[in-house]
Structure formats: structure tokens, C-alpha cells
Amino acid sequence: MATESRFKTAPGAGTLAAFLLVLIFGSPWYGDWVNSSVDGDTGLGWWLRLLHWPAWKFDSGDSLRGVIVGDLRAILVVVLTLVFLILLPGSQLARARGTISQFLAGWAAYIFAGAFAALLAMLFFTDPSLLGAMRASSSGATYGLFIGWIVGLATLGGRRGAAD
User: Fold this and answer.
1) CA-CA distances (angstroms) from residue 8 to 3, 52, 67, 154, 156?
2) Has residue 46 got a pLDDT over 50?
3) DSSP assignment string, 136-158
4) Sign of CA dihedral 56, 107, 141, 147
5) 3-class SS at 7?
6) What one-character-per-residue DSSP string does 85-137 give?
7) Which of 20-34, 90-104, 147-161 has the lowest mean pLDDT?
8) pTM of the full predicted structure?
9) Among candidates 65, 56, 54, 50, which has minimal Cα distance to 29?
10) What is d(CA 71, CA 3) in angstroms, rounded to the nearest whole number?
11) pLDDT at position 2, please?
12) How far apart are the C-alpha atoms of 6 and 142, rounded to whole Å?
């Protein structure tokens, strides 16, 4: 039993990666830097700005509802990443750790987490609309598609869980 605890679990590693991505790149400090210093008209600039998508902030000047909805999206990205990493069968079906199915399951979990986090957070706006929900889900899925490979890499080599 003691030797098993040395190995990371795929859902735990992927969730930790998601948490660090949101904590670091969703921070107001990163957002201030990227908005003032990075040209969004380049590929790298667009990607660096996209990293800030699940932004969180603590600003006393904003309405409580605005702060909660913004932070809710960031929280939901992390929580839903864990949920989807547990539910997606790619890493469950992989016989060997470090296979492409683990990578793709981690990546897909982050795409789904971004899309659903945006959709659920959109429900808390004062006038949610179908078009707004679709746009929000689209931006979350775009974030997951272009950033989720990092979570996919983090899940590589992890065991499935206690039953693995």
C-alpha cells in the first residue's frame, strides 16, 4: 500500500493542473499584464490572452453578483475538470499508464469543463439568453481546446484511482 501512494492519479494530477492554470493565469495580476503588454493580433498574443479566460478577481467596486459569477466560472472549471476526468473512460480503459487515451481524456475533460462552466455561470446573469449561453459555451470550449492539452499532459502516467 505504501508504494501505491507514490504514484499520481490521473484525475488528481489533471485537477491540480487545472487549479494551477486558473490560479496563475486567471489572476488579476496576469490579466493586467497580458492586457497591457501583449499584442492580441498575433498567435502567441491571442493564446496568452486566452489563458486568462477563467478570470477571477476580488474587487470591492464590482457588484457582488458580478464578482460571484466571474469567480464561479473559475471555480467550476476546476471542479468540472475533476468530474469529467473521473467520468471519461479513456484513462479507465487504458491498460498501460501514459497512453494516448489518458492524454486525450484529460484534454477532453478540460474542453467539457470550460464549456459547461461557462454555460452554468451564464445562468446567473440577470438576462441570460439562449444566444448568450451558446456564446459563453463556445468561449469555454475554445479555452479548453487550446489550453486543455496541458491538463492532458498532466494526466499522463497517472493511475486511475484506488482500484487501479
Assistant:
1) 11, 27, 34, 10, 10
2) yes
3) HHHHHHHHHHHHHHHHHHHHTT-
4) positive
5) coil
6) HHH-SHHHH-SSTT-HHHHHHHHHHHHHHHHHHHHHHHTTSSS--HHHHHHHH
7) 90-104
8) 0.84
9) 56
10) 38
11) 44
12) 34
In one-letter notation, the amino acid at residue 42 is T
And the C-alpha cell for 18? 487545472
Task: Let me know: does 80 contact 113? Beta carbons within 8 Å.
Answer: yes
Q: State the sign of the Cα–Cα–Cα–Cα dihedral 152, 104, 31, 82.
A: negative
Amino acid present at 34: V
DSSP state letters, 46-85: HHHHHTTTT-----TTS-HHHHHHHHHHHHHHHHHHHHHH
